[in-house]
Specification:
The complex is a heterodimer of chains A (111) and B (120). Chain A has 111 residues and is mainly beta. Chain A has no helices and 9 strands. Chain A is globular. In chain B, strands 2, 4, 5, 6, 9, 10 and 11 form a 7-stranded mixed sheet that branches. In chain B, strand 4 and strand 5 form a beta hairpin. The chains are: A mainly beta (111), B mainly beta (120). At the A-B interface, strand 3, strand 7 and strand 8 of A face strand 5 and strand 10 of B.
């Protein structure tokens, strides 16, 4: 089952904005508004940052915002901070027997 | 407070069986789907499947169908992931996580992970 495609790495300086992309197909990202984003610090469990494309769970900073256009979803981190350095994974509902699929993951580095 | 507490790290030999657990607390265990996610060393997250503890309805990813078995004992608020014959390639961190709502919703709470090492 093929994963959604994310860039391997994205970097930015403190205070800048960065955007992580997540590309799928019409069977997943493009066909449904069930895209989520997770943050994972080294040695820790993932943390939900955004769901249903642009909803933020309680307690997540409004510096994190999700969006989608066609078959590509995006997570934008504004006002980049050192604590944002982590791996980020998108996920999407996928029609058929797979049900859900994660992205390949993106390492965010704060310069 | 919602918590998912997983069983401890395991070291097994190829061919051995294994069952790891995930105990939920702080919420109605029987009314939220629980899922399992694999993370092989240095790799990304892989969606394995979900189980509804209320009636044990289970949905597997095709990649894991037949390779693992998910189960739940609602009387003790615990979900399980088991293997009948481990392979070296099963070496990974395994996370359980709770679904926010229905089958299309994300994982909102995660366990701390169980590291499974399979080596001869």
């Amino acid at each position: 089952q093929s994963a959604l495609t994310q860039p391997a790495s994205v970097s930015g300086s403190p205070g800048q904005s960065i955007t992580i992309s997540c590309t799928g197909t019409s069977s997943d990202v493009g066909g449904y508004n069930y895209v989520s984003w997770y943050q994972q610090h080294p040695g820790k469990a993932p943390k939900l940052m955004s769901y249903e494309v642009s909803n933020r769970p309680s307690g997540v900073s409004n510096r994190f915002s999700g969006s989608k256009s066609g078959n590509t979803a995006s997570l934008t981190i504004s006002g980049l901070q050192a604590e944002d350095e982590a791996d980020y994974y998108c996920s999407s509902y996928r029609s058929g027997s797979t049900l859900e699929v994660f992205g390949t993951g993106t390492k965010v580095t704060v310069l | 407070e919602v918590q998912l507490v997983q069983s401890g790290a395991e070291v097994k030999k190829p061919g051995e069986s294994l069952k790891i657990s995930c105990k939920g607390s702080g919420y109605s265990f029987t009314t939220y789907w629980i899922g399992w996610v694999r993370q092989m060393p240095g790799k990304g997250l892989e969606w394995m499947g979900i189980i509804y503890p209320g009636d044990s309805d289970t949905r597997y990813s095709p990649s894991f169908q037949g390779q693992v078995t998910m189960s739940a004992d609602k009387s003790i608020f615990t979900a399980y992931l088991q293997w009948s014959s481990l392979k070296a390639s099963d070496t990974a961190m395994y996370y359980c996580a709770r679904r926010l709502g229905g089958t299309t919703t994300p994982f909102d709470y995660w366990g701390q992970g169980t590291l499974v090492t399979v080596s001869s």
